[in-house]
Amino acid sequence: MTGASDNVQAWLDEINHAARTRLGQGQVADYIPALAERDANRFGIAVCTNDGRVFAAGDARMPFSVQSISKIFLLTLALQVYGNRLWERVGMNPSGMPFNSLTQLEAEKGIPRNPFINAGALVVADHFVSAYATPAQHIQDVARSLSGNAGILIDQRVLASEWKHRSRNAATAYLMKSFGNIANEVDDVLRAYFACCALEMSCVDLARALNYLAAGGYAHCLQQQLIAPDLARRMNSLLFTSGMYDAAGEFAYRVGLPAKSGVGGGIVAVVPGRFSVCAWSPALDRNGNSIAAQYALERLSDYLPSSAV
Ligand code: DON
Questions:
Q1: Is the separation of the CB atoms in 50 and 273 below 8 Å?
Q2: Does the keyword Hydrolase apply (predicted)?
Q3: Does the CB atom of residue 287 touch ligand 1 within 6 A?
């Protein structure tokens, strides 16, 4: 290993140790009952450098429910197919509201503020349903090929639990449909959206799969340019302003990186030009962001000015 590699592994080992002192704070998401069964005492972190090296510590190879982190895959795929036409139906600004809020939608004629709140992801999922005959299979294939892990699955229990407790997402989708901003049947859109959320991936899988955002759109596992460099830059801008919901400003102050969280407890962050990182621990704060994972990324950002990777 080079000196820089030694550094990264040493950071992750130190962060793993420190972040475990945060276990026991916060709550595992229980509005999706299948998620409430997850062990709150887990913590993992993985880094994937732009030359494809992976560093990991703690429970970094344990699969968890990616939930809203999948909104990055959905947006990437929809932009590939629809390009800038997508922005006629979803905005680019922070919402300053909880991720599942309906209040802005009525006043703003069914156009969600951004693609990372639930309403925005449902509009993106609607495009996805229009573009692919088997959306759930397609998202699973994409997650597998981008991470280089052919074992990635959609957790059918989580999927069934999200479907059973779908009232708020269904209300959101029907409200947008009443404004003409959902083209497909609401049930089809919800099924595709829940399948994305119910993907089970580890920190290592997610750091690898989303490395293209750090690498100017180049996907290592595919060995090809997935999206244009300027689109990777624009997606990072959206993640910076809206990836952490109404905590985006505080996270930007504390960590300063584009990032996306999910209620499964994962957070993916991007250091453009250098590496992608995923930290995970199931217990969440009141905004729906993992407490230990946020703390871990804050510590990681403290190392960055002196890093060679
Ligand atoms: O639709 C939902 O509410 C969940 N499947 C995803 C929400 C989520 O992960 C928000 N992130 N913090």
A1: yes
A2: yes
A3: no
CA-to-CA distance for 210 and 72, rounded, in angstroms? 8
Instruction: Report the nearest atom of ligand 1 relative to the CA of 284.
Output: 12
Query: Is any atom of ligand 1 closer than 6 Å to the C-beta of 263?
Result: yes
Contact predicate 152/137, CB 8 Å: no
Instruction: Please write the tens of the pLDDT for every residue from 176-205.
Output: 999 999 999 999 999 999 999 999 999 999
From 64, 99, 246, mutation site for ligand 1 pocket: most ligand atoms within 8 A of C-beta: 99
Write out the residue range of the structural domain in which residue 230 sits: 3-306
For the chain, the distance separating the N- and C-terminal CA atoms, rounded to the nearest angstrom, is 12
CB of 169 sitting under 6 A from ligand 1: yes
SS3 call for 200: strand
Residue 242 is a catalytic residue: no
Q: Is 290 a catalytic residue?
A: no
Query: What ipTM was predicted for this assembly?
Result: 0.97
Six-digit token string for 309: 């990777």
What is the distance between the alpha carbons of residues 180 and 216, in angstroms, rounded to a whole number?
35
Q: How many domains does the chain have?
A: 1
Q: Is residue 217 helix, strand or coil?
A: coil
Helix (H) or strand (E) holding 225: strand 224-225
